[in-house]
Amino acid sequence: MGPGVAERLVPSPYALAEIWRETADVWSLALEPRGRDGLPAAAPGQFNMLYAFGVGEAPISISGMPEGGGPLVHTVRAVGNVTRALCEARPGDVLGVRGPYGSSWPVEAARGRDVVVVAGGIGLAPLRPVLTHVIAHRDEYRRVALVYGARTPADVLYRSALERWRSRFDLHVDVTVDSAGRGWGGNVGHVTDLLPSVPFDVADAVAFVCGPEIMMRFAVRDLLDRGASPADVHVSLERNMKCAVGLCGHCQLGAEFVCRSGPVYPYERVSPLLGVREL
Amino acid sequence: METRSLDELLGEHNFFEGMDPRYLTFIAGCGRNVAFHPGAWIARDGDAADSFYAIRHGQVAIEVHSPRTGALVIQTLGDGAVLGWSWLFPPYRWHFDVRAVEPTRAVQFDGTCLRGKCDDDPAMGYEFMKRFARVLTRSLEATRLQLLDVYGEERAPAGAAATEERPLGPRGG
Asked: From CA A99, how far away is CA A129, in angstroms rounded?
C-alpha cells in the first residue's frame, strides 16, 4: 500500500549540495537527501514541492534526475518570496522536499518514433529530463529534435547542455530568441518560426511542448497543421498548485486537478478546457 | 559539374513549392543567383527596394539601428524563407537593414520585372500574391507573439519581493 495523504504532505530534508546561476533570475539547485534514502524515483515531467523553511513551499519541476546516484536538480526562477528564498539558499542549507507528483512525459511510449521537443522560456526545465533520457537511450528513438525559444540570449537556459546537444549528429537542435543584439549569432524570431523546418515524420512522431500557455497554443496549432495527431502532442500545464495531492483544489481546471492528473496531458484531453476563458 | 536551371532551383524552394512549372519558368526570367559572405549588407534602411530574395541556404538578419542600443536584430531568416516585400508597394524603399550572418545563397528577383509579369498574367500574379500573403500573415503572427513578450510573463511582477508569491505552477517560475 502506498503512503497515506498525511505522509505525502510531510517534506523530507534535503541538503543543498550545489547551486548555480543559469540566467539573471534563474538558479539550478542540486539537492541530496539528508540521512536515509531519498524520495521515490521520479519520471521526466514530474515535480516536487520545495520547502524553504520559515518562508513557504513552491511546486518546482525536476530538471535533473538522480540517475546513478547523482543529485536531484531543480531549476527555479526567482519570482516571489518562496522562490527567491530557494534561490538564495547556500550549499549545506537544508530544504524540504516532497514528491514526486503528477504525470510524466510518455518517453517510453515514444520509443521507436520521432520525438519533437518544443520548449519556451523556463519550460525547458521539465523537458531536460526527456532529452537526457532520449540521449541515454538514443538508439531506441528515431529522429529527435529540440526547438527552444527564449526572450533574449541572456535568458537562454542550460547553454552548455544546448551546445553539447547541438554538436551531436543525431539531434536537431534549434534555439531562437525574441530579440537580440548583433553579438548573437543564432536565430531571432518566435519559436513557432522554426517549427516548419523541423524534420519529423508527422505520421509517427510524438511531440512534447512546454512553455508559456500562449506559446504552447501556437506551437501545438503549428504541429497539428503539419499533420501531427492531437493524441501524440503532449503539453505541460501550469496552474496554481498548493497541496500537490489533489485536496485543496487550487489547480483545478474543469474536472482536472492538474497536480494529480497533470501537469503533462495529451493535447486532445485538455484542448477543450484550454479554450474556455472562464478557466 | 551539373548546372541546374533557375526554375528547377525555384521548384525546390518552400515559397514556390507546387507552383505551376510554367509560372516558375516565367518568374525565373526575373531572377538571378546571388551569394553573400557573412557580414555583407543585402539591404540598407531607406535604399531603393527593387529586389526580393528567395533564400536557398544560409541565414540573414533583419536589423534596425538605434543610437542608444546599436543594431537590434528583429528577425533572422534561413533556408526556404523569402526576404523583402517593400518592392511590392510604392515608394519601394527598404525599411530595415539586412545583413548576411552566414554564407548565404539566394535567388534575387528584380521587383520591377516581377510586378510587370504579375500585371501581364493576372492568374500567375494572383498565385504569387497568395503565397506572399501567407508569408506576410505568418510574419505578422510571429511579430505579434514577439510583441506579447510571452516569456516576460514568467518574470517577477514589479514589487514581488514585498508581496506574496504569484500563483505558481510546477515550472518554478
From this structure: 16
**Which one of A56, A78, A101 terminates a domain?**
A101
A108 lies in some domain: no
**Cβ-nearest to B168 among A59, A179, A197:** A59
Identify the domain boundary among A101, A135, A166.
A101
SS3 B114: helix
Q: In angstroms, rounded to a whole number, what is the distance separating the alpha carbons of residues A19 and A23? A: 12
Element holding A29 (H helix, E strand): strand A26-33
**pLDDT tens for residues B14-37?**
999 999 999 999 899 999 999 999
- Whether A16 and A89 have beta carbons less than 8 Å apart is answered as yes
- Predicted model pTM: 0.89
In this structure, are A141 and A250 located in the same domain? yes
Classify burial at A232, counting beta carbons within 10 Å of its beta carbon; exposed 0-12, middle 13-18, buried 19 or more: buried
| Closest chain B residue to A191, measured at CA | B142
**Are both A95 and A123 inside the same structural domain?**
no
Distance in angstroms (rounded) separating the CA atoms of residues B27 and A252: 56
Residue A117, strand partner residues: A146, A208
Q: Which helix (H) or strand (E) covers residue A6, if one does?
A: helix A5-8
pLDDT digits (tens, 9 = 90+) for B98-128: 999 999 999 999 999 999 999 999 999 999 9
- Inter-chain residue contact A122 with B171, CB threshold 8 Å: yes
Whether residues A129 and A262 share a domain: the answer is yes
On chain B, the residues whose CB falls within 8 A of the CB of A123 are: 171
Is it the case that residue A18 has pLDDT exceeding 90? yes
* Total domains in the fold of chain A: 2
CATH number of residue A44's parent domain: 2.40.30.10
Range of the domain at A22: 3-101
What is the per-residue pLDDT for B2?
A: 59
Residues A229 and A148 in one domain: yes
| Pair (A187, A264) in one structural domain | yes
Same-domain status, A211 and A141: yes
Is there a contact between A45 and A263 (Cβ–Cβ < 8 Å)? yes
Taking contacts as CB-CB distances below 8 angstroms, the residues of chain B near A241 are 168-170
Contact B168 A186 (CB under 8 A): no
DSSP three-state, residue A192: helix
3-state secondary structure (DSSP) of residue A39: coil
pLDDT(A173) > 70: yes
Angle at which helix B122-148 crosses helix B21-28, to 10 degrees, equals 80
Q: Are residues A21 and A80 in the same domain?
A: yes
Enumerate domains of chain B plus CATH numbers. Answer: 6-152 (2.60.120.10)
- Helix, strand, coil percent content, chain A, rounded in steps of 5: 25, 30, 40
